[in-house]
Amino acid sequence: PYSPHLAFWLVYYATTGQGITAIHTGGGKILGTQKIVGMTYGFKASVFVGVPGYMYHVIKSAHGAEKQLSDIRLLITGGDRCTTTFRKQIVGLLKEMNAPNPRVCAAYGFTESRMAPLECPHPKGVDGELTGYHTYPDLELWYCIDPKTGERVGPGEKGELVWTALDGRGTIVMNYRTGDVAEAGIKYEKCPHCGRSIPIISSMIGRVSEVKDVRFDKVKGTLVDLNQFYTIMPEYPAIDEWQIVLQRNQETRIDDLIVNVSLKKGKNIPEKKLVENLSQYIQEKMEIAPSAIKLLTADGMSQSLGMEKELKEKRILDLRPKD
Ligand SMILES: [Zn+2]
Ligand SMILES: [Zn+2]
Fold it and tell me: Are 38 and 12 in contact (CB under 8 A)?
């Protein structure tokens, strides 16, 4: 984004410090996707930094406009879950545009830390395992806790990430609970890919705030981990974009979980069949039944997600009244 935001300053200092020419676009909201595609193509950009969902939108737009982004060799993502399936999808599109083996490295950061540890590139690219966020032990201390008890968990064990500043300028936070859960915790062994001996946070992180209490009936709420959609939706072959909307029915006081989807270019599946199959798929994977599945056009979907309007697309939209 183009604002006084960690995602901006991090990239600004990283590129300026290294003397790398960088253009900060501000995303669809500021410059608009068409211009971003034009510049990425025109300047033969080799590195693209952004939130994964919007990055996919840009690369898809370039592909549609036949602007081959063949010079891209590295994608750096931040701000959202970036699953292996999603990485393969985005890299597949780039390979179609003749980009030779682009790597994807995700970053994980939050404002208070003023830093964002990154994954190191795996030599096998997207076919390799996720390498984890390489932390800066001279500047920061990370550990994982059980979110219920607050007790520290062991190396490699799932837990909420807690952060303490050891050095740096500006506001200092200590034992700051991020509300983010590292699914495979923190490892303290030497990285087998780059050889660094530093604490490494496991790549898959879920937000506690996206585990929602949903009232599917009047009796009681059900805890639903919406983070799971980031994994299961890109794995469903025909689906291009997806969005989850939670809303409360004013009369019945029951919550509706609506799944909006759009299909990949060239896929033509009758709506009825798609809704049936997808609903079954979601039930098998998550043990919940969506209230409705809506098939949107690519444009309708991009508008609903706010690709050209939001700082970060509205992948999960909770419209229920706060009670
Ligand atoms: Zn193609
Ligand atoms: Zn490494």
Answer: no
